[in-house]
Amino acid sequence: MASKLEETELIEGLRRGREDAYRKLIDLYSDKLYRLALRILRQEEDAREILQEVFVKVLKKVGEFQGGSSLYTWLYRVTVNESLMRRREKAGHPKEESFEDLLPHYEFGYLIDDTRDWTQGADKRFECEEFHNLVRQLVDELPEELKTAYVLKDLEEISEDEVCGILDITKPTMKNRVHRARLILRKRIEKHYAP
Amino acid sequence: MRLESLIHGILLRTFQLLTCDQMEKLSYDFLEERLPKYRMAQIHLHLITCPQCLRFMRSYRKTRGLNEHLPRPKLDPQFKEAMFQFLMAERRTH
Description:
The complex is a heterodimer. Chain A is mainly α. Chain A has helices at residues 4-16, 19-41, 44-61, 71-91, 122-126, 129-140, 144-155, 160-167, 171-193, and strands spanning 106-107, 110-111. Helix content of chain A is 69%, strand content 2%. A two-stranded antiparallel ribbon of chain A has the order 1-2. The model of chain A has no long low-confidence stretch (mean pLDDT 90).
């Protein structure tokens, strides 16, 4: 992430159409935005196309950029929105699946689920390609709102304030979405490794 | 299970300990280590006395840390250069 001064200079350079500004834009953000699009779309080709669309949008709209949010936030927001639109075009609106049975269940405040421990030896398992594919699939199957919050916060390690800015949501909403995503993933990994 | 849950719930409330559902709601902030000390202590105490929640918290922590184990793909330099050239061509027509 660029400092405030660097970002101001970068935006000015982009407005003027300077080559060095576009090189810097690509250097600073292309890998991060590509990875974000890839986490949402899972297809490399789609993620590359989205990245190109995002940068073309920058080229066309940077003159209108008001600086109400940071360039960083704007780029991430556009990437999330474009990726979600692409995903809906390809897959249609996913049918609403109930994840209630994957959330913890309580009686009188007491956890009544049979919670099993899948963390023993997990680090070694986590390094396998099979596990990476499983996580990608499970993340992909999360409800859209939970997935975007989880990908930004936990997988891309973006600060809470930035995630709220990108998704235009409050901090309690962001925390709730990330928490629910973790609960669902936790249970689904448990079902896979400790059935 | 209902009687066991009821007894456990009564005990937790009697001694002003956290219930399992209260602990779950705090688990996000617990991992961020930004709860007040007394809350952190309450959670630790709960985890000592509740094996179910201990297993829950272990796996919840692991789930939060999945990013450490996933590859972080990067674009190859040729693609970046092609992207740059494409943008420069777009800029000329814009």
